[in-house]
């Protein structure tokens, strides 16, 4: 027979101070764990636009990221005549030559970082349907206008809407902010000729983004580009490229989060064990009575493990609630593969929350198990004799 | 008196152990985070009389080679040497095969880094052979390279692959992390690229640290109206700028550390309160026997201090071992962490925290015990 759940919940209240302390300590562990996971999730979301498998990114052979890639514009002309490239509404090939430049800029806290500037032409927007202007308007080429990723505009005061900023040797005006739903939100976009001119990179592109009809055609195009000795370019599908950019950076935070969770979890397990031991010790006579009434050892064990699990659950929920304000907090770091700033919002999603609660319950159960076993093991007579 | 305290600690061994262990664990975490933060902020191997000059736009832009001479002619400048970060791939892209590769000018490199120790004959051969390189002792040990060995490095930033022969091994006892680089001829790279005459960074050695500020100002002013403006800064500021790029990750680590300490406080305070509550009647007996309030307070405090300090010592010991392991594991992923260590300040902080936790968590029960009236206490003896 099972011991009523009510019994466990009520007993948690009896030793209130003690229970609260334990809940607090487990909740803090959950807070830290969820915080680090949110950091990783936010970073992953900001870097990890999934990309379209029919899109191909072309870089200079050997370059690992757009920021270290550059090649002459002639190659772009050869590229855009290759078969398999889809065409836009007015028949133009959907191939976007883009110039990516890193410029040191100041964050709002005064520290500095490399921000990626991307010079594009109109076709770039046809290739990125998710792209939309949030505030202000689209830039006009030829007059030194730029648009800025939404989060970047928040973190870099020089890039706020309406501001004038010197990039390279020219002055630019921020006329709009945009949301691309991913990677590009950490970038500044302007006309490729304008940015090329400002940095004296008129004759080079860093990458070409090409749209094909299907993932199969994309693979065929990749094979063709890499096989072409004139070009000395390498190509891969958009999803593959994005994945490379993401894993290394966000993985570090997942590893950090897990390491912290394991170590802190141990500490919290000890706290839970301590509390449960004291619960068991204080209720020796009660346990004896329960046993005398005919409850089995198994039921006693179950009841105490359950009690510990509830303890963990409550702590987990509190920890997650404490972590919720972190959601959306804007921050930034450098992706060392592209050597450029990634601004992102912490993201406390369902996955992170569930992870936190599970950790707490697990902590409670692991901590509660030894005391529960010792409670179940003792003889009725010994239990009843305690005061 | 103390004996009684010790006996009390041993009375509930399990609890003492659990509390001590949670103190240890959390302090291990504090030490680890502290070590990481310290490692991030250290700029090992940077001299206070070296200046870095680079493009004002960002490190991905280079400077004309002609700046070399103009920098050399400045007052207080003893030597100037160009360095380009090659950033190629050795063997594969795994982080453990990452190390710094610089194209340099063999004639002047050692004028700017006089602290590098390398046999003269090795320097001579290295200077003569265009496709040779020198590397630090630590790197040579890691890959088992010997003089005369050839290595292949695939270019990534530069569209050039390198085949290099090892001609010299230098040591830098004061900055082990500086021994994890290779230096090869910039002429080799320049020729492969068609002699663009571009330099990533210039390193300047200044006659005295006092003149660093002046030189920095003059260097920046000198190229103000040139085609490529420069940023000049001390070597240390240059190293720290990479850290700055990491953004407020540091703040996050600090916040995590604080959260850990708070949760630790809860855990120990909880246990100490439990221990004290269990002994209410004992305290009453002690008081009846004539022990003063002060005695009782000291008794409880000593007990919690012992747990806090004991836990801290064990935690510190384990942290030393762990951090050393982590340093070995991490140095390949993040070279900056190769120097990971529990530095004295971090150790002191951990010890201090252990004592503080002991004091705080013992404080409340001690106060309760002191205030306890004998009659109330004895009544609890059911």
From TrEMBL, chain A:
Keyword set includes Transmembrane helix: yes
Top-rank taxon, per record: Bacteria
Keyword entries, A-Z: Cell membrane, Membrane, Transmembrane, Transmembrane helix
Pfam families listed in its UniProt record: FtsX, MacB_PCD
Stretches assigned to the ABC3 transporter permease C-terminal domain: 259-379
Main location: membrane
Assigned GO CC terms: plasma membrane
Residue stretches making up the MacB-like periplasmic core domain: 19-226
Bilayer-crossing regions: 20-43, 253-273, 300-324, 353-376
Localization terms from the record: Cell membrane
InterPro entries: ABC3_permease_C, MacB_PCD, Macrolide_Exporter_MacB
Protein name per UniProt: ABC transporter permease
Organism expressing this protein natively: Eiseniibacteriota bacterium
Organism taxonomic ancestry: Bacteria, Candidatus Eiseniibacteriota
From TrEMBL, chain B:
Residue span, ABC3 transporter permease C-terminal domain: 256-373
Chief location category: membrane
Keyword vocabulary terms for this entry: Cell membrane, Membrane, Transmembrane, Transmembrane helix
Transmembrane parts of this sequence: 251-275, 296-322, 342-364
GO cellular component, one term: plasma membrane
UniProt protein name: FtsX-like permease family protein
Location in the cell: Cell membrane
Keyword hit for Transmembrane helix: yes
Protein's membrane topology: Multi-pass membrane protein
Matches recorded under InterPro entries: ABC-4/HrtB_transporter, ABC3_permease_C, MacB_PCD
Domain MacB-like periplasmic core per the UniProt entry, residue ranges: 27-220
């Amino acid at each position: 027979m099972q011991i009523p759940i009510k019994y466990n919940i009520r007993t948690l209240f009896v030793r209130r101070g003690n229970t609260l302390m334990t809940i607090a300590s487990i909740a803090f562990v959950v807070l830290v764990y969820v915080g680090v996971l949110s950091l990783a999730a936010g970073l992953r979301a900001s870097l990890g636009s999934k990309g379209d498998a029919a899109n191909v990114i072309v870089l200079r052979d050997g370059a690992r990221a757009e920021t270290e890639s550059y090649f002459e514009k002639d190659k772009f002309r050869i590229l855009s005549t290759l078969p398999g490239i889809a065409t836009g509404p007015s028949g133009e090939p959907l191939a976007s030559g883009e110039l990516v430049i890193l410029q040191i800029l100041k964050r709002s806290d005064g520290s500095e970082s490399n921000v990626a500037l991307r010079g594009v032409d109109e076709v770039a927007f046809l290739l990125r349907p998710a792209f939309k202007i949030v505030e202000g308007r689209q830039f006009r080429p030829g007059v030194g206008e730029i648009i800025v990723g939404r989060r970047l505009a928040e973190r870099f005061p020089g890039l706020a809407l309406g501001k004038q900023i010197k990039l390279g040797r020219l002055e630019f005006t921020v006329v709009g902010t945009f949301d691309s739903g991913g990677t590009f939100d950490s970038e500044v976009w302007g006309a490729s000729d304008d940015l090329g001119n400002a940095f004296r990179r008129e004759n080079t592109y860093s990458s070409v983004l090409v749209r094909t009809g299907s993932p199969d055609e994309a693979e065929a195009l990749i094979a063709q580009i890499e096989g072409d000795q004139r070009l000395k370019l390498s190509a891969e599908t958009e999803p593959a490229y994005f994945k490379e950019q993401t894993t290394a950076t966000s993985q570090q935070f997942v590893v950090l989060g897990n390491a912290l969770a394991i170590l802190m979890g141990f500490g919290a397990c000890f706290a839970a064990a301590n509390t449960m031991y004291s619960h068991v010790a204080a209720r020796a006579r009660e346990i004896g009575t329960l046993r005398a009434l005919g409850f089995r050892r198994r039921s006693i064990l179950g009841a105490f493990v359950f009690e510990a699990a509830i303890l963990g659950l409550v702590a987990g929920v509190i920890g997650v609630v404490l972590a919720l304000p972190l959601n959306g907090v804007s921050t930034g770091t450098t992706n060392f593969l592209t050597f450029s700033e990634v601004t992102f919002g912490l993201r406390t999603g369902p996955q992170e929350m569930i992870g936190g609660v599970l950790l707490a319950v697990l902590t409670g159960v692991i901590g509660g198990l030894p005391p529960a076993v010792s409670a179940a093991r003792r003889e009725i007579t010994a239990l009843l004799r305690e005061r | 008196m103390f004996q009684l305290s010790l006996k009390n600690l041993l009375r509930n061994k399990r609890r003492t152990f659990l509390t001590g262990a949670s103190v240890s664990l959390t302090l291990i975490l504090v030490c680890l985070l502290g070590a990481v933060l310290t490692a991030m902020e250290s700029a090992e191997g940077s001299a206070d009389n070296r200046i870095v000059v680079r493009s004002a736009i960002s490190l991905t832009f280079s400077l004309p080679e002609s700046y070399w001479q103009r920098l050399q002619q400045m007052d207080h400048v003893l030597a100037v040497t160009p360095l380009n970060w090659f950033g190629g791939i050795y063997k594969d892209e795994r982080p453990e095969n990452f190390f710094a590769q610089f194209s340099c000018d063999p004639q002047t490199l050692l004028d700017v880094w006089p602290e590098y120790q390398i046999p003269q004959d090795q320097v001579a051969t290295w200077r003569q052979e265009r496709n040779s390189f020198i590397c630090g002792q630590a790197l040579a040990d890691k890959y088992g390279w010997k003089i005369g060995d050839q290595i292949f490095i695939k270019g990534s930033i530069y569209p050039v692959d390198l085949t290099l022969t090892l001609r010299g091994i230098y040591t830098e006892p004061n900055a082990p992390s500086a021994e994890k680089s290779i230096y090869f001829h910039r002429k080799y790279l320049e020729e492969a690229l068609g002699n663009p005459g571009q330099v990533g960074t210039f390193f300047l050695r200044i006659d005295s640290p006092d003149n660093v500020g002046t030189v920095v100002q003059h260097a920046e002013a000198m190229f103000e109206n040139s085609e490529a403006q420069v940023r000049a800064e001390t070597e240390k500021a240059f190293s720290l700028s990479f850290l700055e790029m990491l953004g407020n990750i540091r703040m996050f680590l600090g916040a995590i550390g604080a959260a850990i300490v708070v949760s630790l406080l809860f855990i120990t305070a909880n246990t100490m309160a439990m221990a004290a509550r269990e002994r209410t009647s004992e305290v009453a007996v002690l008081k009846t026997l004539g022990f003063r309030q002060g005695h009782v307070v000291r008794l409880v405090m000593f007990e919690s201090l012992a747990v806090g300090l004991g836990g801290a010592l064990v935690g510190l010991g384990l942290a030393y071992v762990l951090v050393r392991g982590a340093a070995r594991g991490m140095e390949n992923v993040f070279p900056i962490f190769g120097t990971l260590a529990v530095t004295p300040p971090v150790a002191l902080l951990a010890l201090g925290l252990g004592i503080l936790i002991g004091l705080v968590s013992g404080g409340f029960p001690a106060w309760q015990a002191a205030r306890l009236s004998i009659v109330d206490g004895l009544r609890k003896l059911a």
